[in-house]
Structure formats: C-alpha cells, structure tokens
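Here is one such protein, fold included:

. . .
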Amino acid sequence: MWPHSEPKIGFLFLVWITFQGCDPGYWVGVRANLMQPLSPECIEETLHQLPELDRISVHKSGSSNTTYLREASRPEQVPDEYIFEAGQQKGLITQFQKQEGRTSFLAGVDAVGVTSEDQVERIQRFNARIASQVARTCHAKFFDDSRFMCFPDRMGCREALRSQASE
C-alpha cells in the first residue's frame, strides 16, 4: 500500500457518501405519514402562534420545479423548511410527497455532535410537541394509525407524543 493512503481513502469515502445523498450524521425527531400535505400557510401561522418559540424562519422552495437537491438525473424538489427555536432547543419541519400517494411530515434536526441519550430525548420531546401542535391545528389526516413515530425510537419521545395526543 502507498504511504499515507489511509487519509486519502477516508476523504474519498466521505466525498462519495456526500455525493450519494447520504449524511454521515444522523437525524433525530419524529415523522408521520399523512394522506395529504398540510397547508404551508397553516404550518407557518401555527408556528408563529406558539408562545414558546423565540425564533421562526421559513425557507421556501419556490413556485417552480427548478430547485433540486441532487443532480438532474435524480431530480428531487427541495421542500419548504420551517425552522424554529426556543432557547437552546431547535427544530425543523418539512414535508414532501412520496410516489405512493402519501406525504412524509418530519420534525427534527440533524444531530451531528449529539452524544448523550438525554440530548436525543430532549430534542425529540421538543420536536414531538411542536409537530403534534402543528398537526392538530392544521387538521392533519394520518395515512395510518401510528400517527407520529420517533427516530430513533426512545421512551421519552413516545411519552411526549402520548401526552400531546391526550390534550
């Protein structure tokens, strides 16, 4: 083997993963399958009405289908993103339609650098609470009975979802 080839191989592997659309980090939050997308106006208005949120920013994908995530051979329209914060807590809501006719509704964050189980559960509880309030206010119609699912699956997140469902 060539001298000093290991760092080059690691760098090339990272570049390959990046261009394959994979994230070497991981996502923490909740997701649900909806019958149809929620109104973007309703999502934004609901977030602005939640008194616990300190900051909200919205990144719109634009009205044309010319905004893409990957190369033209695999076009995927970039969905709208609703970023919200409450103190140190952060989250992002996005939704996109799947080919099967359902809509994936996601609330969470990229958790690169999150090292403890306590941090994961805190992030999930926060995002579960906000996502549940948005879904309820915007009259979400769920595709299946599972409503929201936690990723990764943690007890604290499931408890937060149960308490939101009972309100």
Q: What stands out?
A: Residues 117-137 form the longest helix (21 residues). The CA atoms of residues 30 and 63 lie 27 Å apart.
